[in-house]
Task: structure prediction
Amino acid sequence: MKKKVLFLGLMVTVMVVLMAMLSISASAASDKGFTYTVENNKATITGYTGSATAIKIPSELGGYDVVAIGREYYLGSNGFTGNTQIISVEIPDTVKSIDQSAFNGCTNLKEVTIGANVEKIGYAAFANCENLETVAFNNNAKLTTIDDNAFSGCIKMTSFVIPHTVKTLGKTSFRHCDLLTEIFIPNSVETIGSSAFLHCDNLAKVVVGSGVKEIPKSCFYDCVNLTSVYFHSTLETIHNAAGEVAFANCTELKYVYYQGNYDAWINIGGSNQSAFNNTFKDENNVITNTEINCDKTTIPFGLDDNEFRFPDVANEKAWYYDEVYYCEDNGYITGTDKGTFNPNGNLTREQFVVILARVSGADLSKYINSKFADVKATAWYAPSVIWANEEGYVNGVGDGTKFGVGQNMTREQLATMFFRYAKANGVNVEGKADLSDFADAAKVGSWAKEACEWAVKSELIGSTSTTAKTLAPQMAVTRGQAAKIFMSYDNIA
Result:
């Protein structure tokens, strides 16, 4: 009787598993050359049957939002694994996860653009993409995890900017990225997996953010051209167990900069610096090859938080330095998809309204219906554009049917939008400057004249030349200039 009951129980279990597999298979479909499965009304791409070399992942398939790219074990599908024809991939904002081995072994893949809402790059997702050169992230990236082996074997990748939202770098996540020359690990990173940068043969400079408490075993093993490493005072441990030394075989390591004092440094690496596999000592236990520089004052570029945020805004004497970090600290302006600020890059119209929405603290959740043909509801800037238009701060271009996405913001446009925003929010806009002092005053559009008079009087904008008084109303506004203007506005608001 017991055997019969056991047999029936096993049969029920088998039936449940088979039904689950059939259910999963039944949900499989294909559309636009992509195979996918559906679960909870969300689509996961499991493969590609098309022949295109430039792949733009669709945001929806079969009426379902695409939220993941990866493997489906029950179907024997491996995403794009081993696809040798694709050269570029653009991943939309709807996607939240790039799963295990999604693009593993795509040996001709050169360029990847990753959408804002991707939170995790899974195990070996881009491993062995031996021609991958560029990985670009959205300005508003939400990425938190770069999993084990994620970019292992990407031997052609010369640079990688880790977004300032990432918390975890997995084991061997960048192993054998042979052409990487420098890595900035942002303050957001809390955990680095063992051997994360093993055998990065040309890695010369490493900057470790304040969130990292431990450098794990073999983390930079055999980085034979590593010459300088920078640590925050928050670092607590450098792994130094026999055979697993964090910086073993880093034979060219010359400079170690540590933000704390020397007594704290000794506790981190051990009194004989064994964490560095004896690279620093001769037979008498005397440091020879490598300088250990402690205290912030000895660090050439300051090693403060700003160094970890925007490598291209590290010069404190730059005219935009304070303004950039003021805006970043207040959440007004974030970095580019390459992890830099790009102070000399032009500001676009949609970027401006996104910043303006952040300054206002607007609740954008109700702004979902766009009247502009070039503003899709799913675009990262859409809620801000809709908000600014409905509040009367911005209008479209031309006949008004388009917003002008991608167009540079001009000085007179910025003045006009700011003027409307200030007036609507109770700022005194009565003061006006006489524009006749400017040699090019006649070039100011009639629609922008009053706003430019106010902006000049309020010192939001001024002459663009030191030799002649010019307003340059049609000149594009740079990101550095925008930072300065937004900081100035806060002083008068």
User: Anything to note?
Assistant: The radius of gyration is 27 Å.
